[in-house]
Amino acid sequence: LDETTTLNNGVKMPYFGLGVWQTDNHTAQNSVTEAIKNGYRLIDTAKEYGNQAGVGKGIRESLKETGGNRKDLFITTKVFNGDAGYDSTLNAFYDTLHELQLTYIDLYLIHWPVDGRYIDTWHALEKLYKDGLIRAIGISNFDNERLQNLLDHATVTPAVNQMEYNPLNQEKEIHEMAKMTGIQLEAWSPLGGGEALNDPTINQLAEKYHKTAAQIILRWNYQQDVVTIPKSTHTNRIIENSQIADFELSEEDVQKIQAMDKKKHTIWYDEFDWHNAIKPETVQEWDDT
Ligand code: A2P
């Protein structure tokens, strides 16, 4: 849980954290509080999730309870499609800081590469990074072609590319390119939205190692040098998911998981044209008292 990877700018990032996608403010507040109390250091949210206020509240609450320090946490958030562009990204960033009630962000990502606008968005991230408001900047959901285009126009190389990555969708070409360009790969939906948990190969390995299916997948992420942020809103699963330091998958068993790749995205992925259209922001009721 404490292990970190060193990003291409020298910043250390935990290999393991909590995701809070599809979680309302109150639930996110609770999950974040439980996670940090149980040793999590990395929390991953996004403006689009509509729960940054709840995440911020969870951070403050848990620091108060544990006596911990903000500097020991690693907070990731993202700029969404509707804010793509230079000035709009700068404005979105300040809104995000305000919602989270933080003075800086550890890792700020372009959530989706909106075609025609992601270079301008990147230049805004570079400015915020150079101004010292973000410790590392990165991207999410960039294929290799868009990444190459970004690299051709960037003065700062992205530190991270966050992709859908799980045994059923291993994004091997993107992982290769990330390794070659010194970019850390990070997995969203590492459990395949729950689907990979039912796979027979994963369950055989779970039996063999006396671990749960989720722990097998998350350990495999770590052994592949992939940062992982499983989402759960249940305290027992939040704890279970973090218990992956006390065993190691053999090379042979890693290969069994490598062979599971079907290049299959989770169901919702194809529902929306993420690279072009601007989806309306999620707006949630939030009583910040
Ligand atoms: P829940 O939030 O009810 O615990 P992913 O991160 O791949 O998108 O997967 C998240 C899904 O997997 C959520 O539906 C979450 O449900 C479920 N999940 C998370 N951890 C576990 C676990 N240890 N065992 C079973 N299901 C899990």
Question: Which SSEs are present, and which pair or pack?
Answer:
Layout: E1 4-6, E2 12-14, E3 17-19, H1 25-37, E4 42-44, H2 52-66, E5 74-79, H3 86-100, E6 105-110, H4 118-130, E7 134-140, H5 144-153, E8 160-164, H6 172-181, E9 184-188, H7 200-209, H8 213-223, E10 227-228, H9 235-242, H10 251-258
Parallel strand pairs: 3-4, 4-5, 5-6, 6-7, 7-8, 8-9, 9-10
Antiparallel strand pairs: 1-2
Helix pairs in contact: 1-2, 2-3, 3-4, 7-8
The protein binds adenosine-2'-5'-diphosphate.
What is the structure about, briefly put?
This protein is α/β, with parallel strands linked by helices and 289 residues long.
Structure characterization notes:
- The chain is 39% helix and 15% strand.
- The protein is an alpha/beta fold.
- It has ten helices and ten strands.
- It has a domain at 13-194 and 225-243: NADP-dependent oxidoreductase domain (TIM Barrel), CATH 3.20.20.100.
- Helix 2 packs across helix 3 (86-100), helix 3 crosses helix 4 (118-130) and helix 7 (200-209) packs across helix 8.
- The two termini are 32 Å apart.
- It has an eight-stranded parallel β-sheet with strand order 3-4-5-6-7-8-9-10. Strands 1-2 form a two-stranded antiparallel ribbon.
- It is globular and about 55 Å long.
- Bound molecules: adenosine-2'-5'-diphosphate.
- Adenosine-2'-5'-diphosphate is lined by residues 19, 189-194, 197, 212, 214, 230-234, 237, 240-241.
- Adenosine-2'-5'-diphosphate binds next to helix 9.
